Amino acid sequence: MKVGTATWKKIGLLIGIMTTGFLLAGCLADNVARDLGVYVNRDVYSIAELEQGCLDRYRSVTGVNYHGDESLYRILKTEILPVYGSFCVMARKIEPRTEKVKRLHSYYLQAAHFRLRGFKTVALAIESRDPDLIRVANDNFSKAADAANQWRSQVGDLAELHGIKFKLN
């Protein structure tokens, strides 16, 4: 069977399309890996200390460290809420480039949102002397923990998928 010039052009075009497809797929994978690396190592890392400081400070005045509503309220209003509010603003400014990392970031934002609501609800419970609001606050903290766990899991899964190693606490 004789292969004409038109057939060779079609074969060449098909090979070109397949090669371009493979190259684009590789670039997209690299873009996700790069975006994930920037997201975790630069964006999240740059604000994580603010959040951790607030969580540590909250633990220092609750549970076995609880020394009364006045102390807890003062710490919430003067230290935790202002700093955690700033942390949430910074977290919302993070703009991942790829859809996969954007979806991942939505869990981070959910966790921050529910934690902030929890802190505000504890303060409101103390102001209004309404113990039922503590249950609402605890529900918010539980939702925050669930979202944070989902975020950690997704970071791990996405990193593994793209051959990245992170040390997440």
Describe this entry's structure for a reader.
With 169 residues, the protein is mainly alpha-helical. The protein has one domain (32-161). 83% of the residues lie in helices and 0% in strands. The chain is built from 4 helices and no strands. It has helices at residues 5-59, 69-93, 99-128, 132-161. Helix 2 runs antiparallel to helix 3 and helix 3 packs antiparallel against helix 4 (132-161). The longest helix has 55 residues, at 5-59. The radius of gyration is 24 Å and the shape is elongated. 20% of the residues are buried. The model is unreliable at 11-29 (pLDDT under 50).
Any idea what the radius of gyration is? Answer: 24 Å
Number of contiguous helices: 4
Q: Residue-averaged pLDDT, rounded?
A: 87
Largest sheet: none
Structural class: mainly alpha
How far apart are the first and last residues' alpha carbons, in Å?
A: 65 Å
Estimate the helix proportion, in percent.
Answer: over 70%
Poorly predicted parts? 11-29
Order of H and E elements: HHHH
Task: Quickly describe the structure.
This protein has 169 residues and is an all-alpha fold.
Protein topology:
Blueprint: H1 5-59, H2 69-93, H3 99-128, H4 132-161
Helix pairs in contact: 1-2, 2-3, 3-4
